[in-house]
Write a structure and sequence with these properties.
Rossmann fold; five-stranded parallel sheet; 5 strands
């Protein structure tokens, strides 16, 4: 059986990830692909329980390393229960956030450094996205887009934290240019969607 594809979307909150994920899912399904749409933290019953703990604003005293380990624990379950079986059975997995989020948010945002990569090396078990779309938008624009909605514990962090996260994403893109594709998320939704579709089509045709 032909191996499927693993595609992830990254970016700060308000970058338009959810919209583009749905558009890509609908397009691929219309072309006959079986698509598994999932997210992190979460994606499994166990992972969703961990997600609730991580994002609950009442857990404001959570240690940064505890946070990083919880993300990795959710990811380990996610890879083994959902991502690996789906990819090996020929499906297309589209994931809203994956390990790059941990590196950006905990490695850079929380300033935990390289240990986040070490922790997650065990969690991912060799399963990395074939292609990652980094939705890039000005931090002020992203913040404005989520204004008015109830914010979780991570979304309540200050601007300095998010500046470090943004820098982290820039560094990750620089380090993995063959996998991570930066997308200007400030444009029109359909134009962004067309750009993403073109990249995914090239991936599936064996081109980059």
């Amino acid at each position: 059986m032909k191996r499927g594809y693993f595609i992830s979307f990254e970016g700060v909150d308000g970058s338009g990830k959810s919209t583009q994920i749905e558009l890509l899912k609908d397009l691929l399904e219309s072309r006959g692909y079986e698509v598994v749409l999932t997210r992190e933290p979460g994606g499994t019953e166990i992972g969703e329980k961990i997600r609730d703990i991580i994002l609950d604003p009442s857990n404001s005293g959570m240690d940064h390393m505890t946070e990083a380990l919880l993300y990795a624990a959710s990811r380990a379950q996610h890879v083994r229960q959902v991502i690996a079986p789906a990819v090996e059975s020929g499906k297309v997995v589209i994931c809203d956030r994956f390990v790059d989020s941990s590196i950006a948010y905990q490695g850079y945002g929380r300033e935990l450094g390289k240990c986040v990569e070490d922790i997650n090396r065990y969690a991912v078990s060799g399963y990395m996205p074939d292609m990652t779309f980094l939705m890039k938008v000005n931090l002020n624009v992203g913040s404005d887009r989520i204004k008015g909605r109830r914010r979780d514990r991570i979304e309540m962090e200050d601007k300095d934290f998010y500046s470090r996260v943004y820098e982290g994403y820039e560094m990750i893109q620089r380090d993995f240019p063959d996998r991570i594709i930066g997308i200007d998320a400030s444009g029109e939704i359909d134009v962004i969607g067309s750009t993403i579709t073109d990249h995914v089509q090239r991936l599936m045709e064996g081109k980059r």
